[in-house]
Amino acid sequence: MSVFNNLPSPPVAAKKPVSDTRHGVTRTDDYAWLRADNWQAMFKDTSILDPEIRSYLEAENAYMEAAMADTKELQKTLFAEMKGRIKEDDSSIPMKDGAFAYGSAFVTGGEQPRYFRIPRDGNPKDETIRDLLLDGDKEATGKDYFRLSGIDHTTDHSFGIWGYDDKGSEYYTLRIRDLSTKQDLDDVLENTAGGGVWAPDGKSFFYTLQDENHRPSKVFHHIVGQPQSADRLVYEEKDPGFFMGVGGSLLDDFIFIDIHDHETSEYRLLSTKDLMAEPMLVAEREEGVEYSMTEGGDVFYILTNADDAKDFKIVEAPVTAPGKANWKEVVPHEPGRLILNHMAFARHLVWLERREGLPVIMIRDRKSGEEHSIAFAEEAYSLGLQGAAEYETDVIRFSYSSMTTPSQLFDYNMATRERTLLKTQEVPSGHTPEDYVTRRVFAEAHDGEKVPVTLLYRRDTKLDGSAPCLLYGYGAYGITIPAGFNTNCLSLADRGFVYAIAHIRGGKDKGFSWYEDGKMEKKVNTFKDFISAADHLVKEGFTAYDRIIAEGGSAGGMLMGAVANMAPEKFAGIIAAVPFVDVLNTMLDDTLPLTPPEWPEWGNPIESEEEYRWIAAYSPYDNVEKKPYPPIIALSGLTDPRVTYWEPTKWIAKLRETVPEAGPFLLKTNMAAGHGGKSGRFQRLEEIAFEYAYAIKVAGKM
């Protein structure tokens, strides 16, 4: 029996067939017109959106509002619960850097962070000594959307670069602030990637510029006080398949230019002793070889998968000659031990690794070679390695949490091995960890692999198949979904839900091979793993098929579209956030922001007939058929440059046309935001409350 009753007639999208022939295959897309011809300009000025498209999106929003009208009070209740678990006037523990320690804080009712500093050894709890550098709430006044990219200070602490995006299109404007007067200089830099790296003298900085296709393709050198038009081009990446970023070293000796796609990387270095020099190539790009660098005084430490080190190793090379010929192994490759990132300090080398799906922080004394680890005993947990802002230190910072344990922040002395608890996440409305259970179970996949699934539920939840379940998945780009503390999902657990995360192939949860087995021609493993996770939860009595609500976003939204096509009968409902569902059309359009860099992940259907056929076989939009689809809601942002608004819009239109008796199929388009949804911390909670209200409604638990 449907939980959606008395719905008005849904919008019907006009059909304007457009045919395309590739590799001898002709496809007709009835809804291609929903892609605005002027999308690049529209991302910067939404008022120029084609009125016919705007009218259709607004009609979809009205239909969605009607379908969800009976959840309004539930949404308010959920929002109040989630907000009640957040310490409104929360503050970070400032990080020491020179004469100061830098931190951020929120005020009661505030949506945006405020950045401050205190004297280096000042009491972090003494608000009277805080020097407020940037008030995000003040800067966001009058704007429908506003996201800060942070603030980076000069070595002498006199100036700071800060950036903001006020459209959701991820084009950031950079400003320079005098940290003594708190006034911005006249310099205004448009269309940047959101941050910059200061030269040591504080008179200039380096930043990346985004082109009209939203690619960070150029690094510029900006001299304070000059117009952006006078900025010097330092390096331009001609290959549209590569992203680029710019960073700095703790010793202020080098500017790093990091060039990469999803499987290949290249670094170029600029010595801060000669800012006008040409960047020096470290090791030229070699398909499938990745590396990243950190400085260690007279050597660079380089994390790489070169020489078939699939799960990565760490090598060192002289600062004067860092080329590949001089790489010397420091931390060897061990199959099954995935090294995720690394940091170097004056006396220690630090790296974060993952074994059997669980993270461990490793520390090596650079002089003696002695190693030790920081590990924890829970069945599933998350670690975050923040490191330090200074090179000459023995103290690093890390965070720990689990699905039941609120986040804890520690300072750790690498020499004495002393661990100092700085802060435990407060849950103002109260949280009793003993009331909840975290488990890690393993589902058997179609090919015998064991898929980890992390579970959270109340201890008093009956595990007899009667509990509803929200099953979350992502499974792409090697991204691992951590089993960390999430106050929001407690609202589901408290209503009898089992909250589950399926650690499916496509992520690196079980090493690099776990990622490789979920990309390119093996992408279907990702979808099958998710279905296997659902099967296991039903088999073991955690839930039942008619009680599982599947959720995923972005590439996880592709997952949602794929499993809806493959096994619609195994889900009570599906939440697809900014879903990448029009995979084939997007991968065939090399003018879109992310298409060329994405080919190593999905395949290049322009050049390869084989890769065309891989994608065509699972692309959710292309495989909609007359099947018993469950209710589906797709969420999108009008200015999203990553998953463009027309993908979920076309998908919902096609679902509704193909199976008008199924669903209902709902579309919610945020007309003033992009990929990340609303920008404020409480505005974001409103969106989560909406998604959870949908899950509760579909599960019949209202």
Automatic annotation (TrEMBL):
Pfam families (UniProt xref): Peptidase_S9, Peptidase_S9_N
InterPro entries, A to Z: AB_hydrolase_fold, Pept_S9_AS, Pept_S9A_N, Peptidase_S9_cat, Peptidase_S9A, Serine_Peptidase_S9A
Gene3D superfamilies (UniProt xref): alpha/beta hydrolase, Prolyl oligopeptidase, N-terminal domain
Residue ranges of every copy of the Peptidase S9 prolyl oligopeptidase catalytic domain listed in the record: 485-700
GO MF term list: serine-type endopeptidase activity
GO biological process: proteolysis
Annotated stretches, region: Disordered: 1-23
UniProt keyword terms in alphabetical order: Hydrolase, Protease, Serine protease
Domain Peptidase S9A N-terminal positions: 10-424
Family to which the UniProt record says this protein belongs: Belongs to the peptidase S9A family.
UniProt name for this protein: Protease II
Organism of derivation: Agrobacterium albertimagni AOL15
Lineage start: Bacteria, Pseudomonadati, Pseudomonadota, Alphaproteobacteria, Hyphomicrobiales
